[in-house]
Amino acid sequence: MLFDDIDVHNLFFRQWHPLIKEFTSQLNKDSVLEVIKNTEITHFDISKYKEVLNFTNTKECKEVLRRIVKEKSTNKFLKILRDRDNLHPRDIKRGYSIEELLKLVSKNEYHPLLFLELKKKYYIIDGRTRLYCCIFLNLPAKVRIISDKDLYDSCKQ
């Protein structure tokens, strides 16, 4: 599935955090793809978003989150996300517009976010916009959480 391939790409090539980079350098990408595909989809309580260590990497991202948490207007929320996209241009084309993502999240018809649990801490690998939508809509986030232990046991090179 294309989205699983994007998850793998994001895990190996789009992570700036040194712990994630060091950990993934020991892994076989093909094996990681299989682990991701076979990881159970669960729900993450959005009240715990502060436990996701790399959710807001910059002061601009922290400001975006601060605004989203307080926002009630859908139009203003969408504008905040468009402004965020302008601040941090993507190197992979998004499969859906922000408006479509919001609609998919509201109907629980979206690809799950991908989290890495590394040293008992959560890192978001893919799905920040979907997580922002969940926060705005006050809905639990549909996630797959891959653990460092499972990845190491299954994918060490």
In short:
This protein has 157 residues and is of the alpha+beta class. Helices cover 52% and strands 15% of the residues.
List the helices and strands and how they pair.
Elements: H1 2-13, H2 18-24, H3 29-38, E1 41-44, H4 59-70, H5 74-87, H6 98-106, E2 113-118, E3 121-126, H7 128-137, E4 141-147, H8 148-155
Parallel strand pairs: 2-4
Antiparallel strand pairs: 1-4, 2-3
Helix pairs in contact: 1-3, 3-8, 4-5, 6-7
What does this structure look like?
With 157 residues, the protein is α+β, with helices and mostly antiparallel strands. It has one domain. The chain is built from eight helices and four strands, in the order H-H-H-E-H-H-H-E-E-H-E-H. The protein has helices at residues 2-13, 18-24, 29-38, 59-70, 74-87, 98-106, 128-137, 148-155; strands at residues 41-44, 113-118, 121-126, 141-147. Strands 1-4-2-3 form a four-stranded mixed β-sheet. A hairpin with a 2-residue loop joins strand 2 (113-118) and strand 3 (121-126). Helix 6 (98-106) packs across helix 7 (128-137). The protein is globular. The two termini are 23 Å apart. The mean pLDDT is 91.
